[in-house]
């Protein structure tokens, strides 16, 4: 792999070499411990997964899954959860955290391949170990069994397909993820920026057809629009609000009037979308254009969406982290790492350790990360001069040589 330097002792070259069995053993131990602990303390694969499974069981019993206000998914998710609803709890409590950890690992692998890094490299193994052991939302997602994990896999897979010029397949992957959970819907704007209308059509038609067909089997076919959508737009659930990281939820807890907080969140989201558009217009070669534009779009959505949780960060952080070895990568900026500091497990922050107050830490991470991505959209430092001539920092990309797999 060429990384811009020929020194064999360079840290980049070391990270791109195959990992030894010891590193793989450590990774297996970390993931295994996380899965085992989750299986011991949860039922139905975690609190959030249990909501979807309960909705499927309600439907199988002839009831309406949308009677539960916390079921926030399309009707297609009800059918997707039916296989789980047929399994005993003893199986789910092991199978679900194992599947979540596996899907997160698969998403990390796709992000690495997007950026040209080998999936068996030290970067691959150490990066996933670091995410599992040093990034709190990773453990939270496994313990909750939240279906955000489908987005954490689908977005890097979608971008990997787009990078390989398989845009329609990328749209279908994005659409399938939206059919399971609407979280990735804002990423469809990437197809608009790229002018890939067939991919956009696939991204829209897949969830529309899947959800439309599933809705016909529900007691209330319009339940998502008449009950769930108003709940999402209103954000009036007092319990949920304690864990939301968006400015619209956090600022009122600091004394900012609600309408003002919502207005500020909308402005911030709009600025983020504009920055993502600017990032796409730079049109520099390599996968960073796709990754950073998509990350900007998703972070903008998280700033304004209700709800917005810490585990949503797993949709963008691994995607950006996987490109750390590129010249001028966003993950090389100090503020990228500063944003992640509040997410270090075991570090106590005075006044913020109560479960209902960690949203302030999550809001800091979300806000700083969104600003960092937006600022980076203008180009890496020294990557583009004032006359618009690109230098090597913006043009170099990671390439896998014939011997690195």
- The percent range for strand residues is under 5%
Q: What is the residue-averaged pLDDT?
A: 88
Largest sheet: none
Oligomer: single chain
Question: How many helices?
Answer: 21
Please state the CA-atom Rg, rounded to the nearest Å.
Answer: 21 Å
Order of helices and strands: HHHHHHHHHHHHHHHHHHHHH
Share of residues in helices:
55-70%
Strand element count: 0
Shape: globular
Poorly predicted spans: 1-9, 381-405
Structural class: mainly alpha
- End-to-end C-alpha gap: 9 Å
Q: Could you explain how this protein is built, in words?
A:
- The protein is mainly α and 405 residues long.
- The protein has helices at 11-16, 21-41, 47-60, 75-80, 82-85, 89-114, 122-134, 136-144, 148-163, 167-180, 189-194, 197-215, 223-234, 238-241, 247-250, 258-282, 288-304, 317-321, 334-340, 359-376, 392-395.
- It contains 21 helices and no strands.
- Helix 17 (288-304) crosses helix 20 (359-376) and helix 19 (334-340) runs antiparallel to helix 20 (359-376).
Key features?
single chain, 405 residues, mainly alpha, disordered N terminus, disordered C terminus
